[in-house]
């Protein structure tokens, strides 16, 4: 099943904050060879789902602002969010959230993010 990425529209089916291609570009730019060494894009998608699930579990109640729609699957997009003095576009997922998802996905490839 193809990974459903949140694009800022508040998708009810979104599973990740970043695509495999964007996560791969992020890790390549940082020399994270472990990401490229994963067996397939299917494995990368699984890691991104785990990372997003973890972010939702840990940070859902900590983020500023409010979700833009009641049917959206994930916490972003949000409105009334200010980062470093700038109002975040309420039709987007901030780059910092996408990067965090990519970093957590790499960690998820090696260990359980939320062990019992």
Task: Give your account of this protein's structure.
With 116 residues, the protein is mostly helical. It is built from 4 helices and 4 strands. It has helices spanning 20-29, 33-36, 41-59, 95-108, and strands at residues 66-67, 78-79, 82-83, 86-87. The chain is globular.
- Inertia-based shape: globular
Mean pLDDT: 96
Amino-to-carboxy terminus distance: 27 Å
The level of helicity is 40-55%
Radius of gyration: 14 Å
User: How much β-strand is present in the residues?
Assistant: 5-15%
Tell me the total number of β-strands: 4
What are the segments in which pLDDT stays under 50 over at least 5 consecutive residues? none
Structural class: mainly alpha
What is the topology, as strand order, of the major beta sheet? Answer: 1-2
Order of helices and strands: HHHEEEEH
The biggest beta sheet, please? 2 strands, antiparallel
- Helix count? 4
Task: Provide the descriptors you would attach to this structure in a database record.
two-stranded antiparallel sheet; 4 helices; single chain; mainly alpha; two-stranded antiparallel ribbon; globular; 116 residues
Short description:
By secondary structure, the protein is mainly α. It is 41% helix and 7% strand.
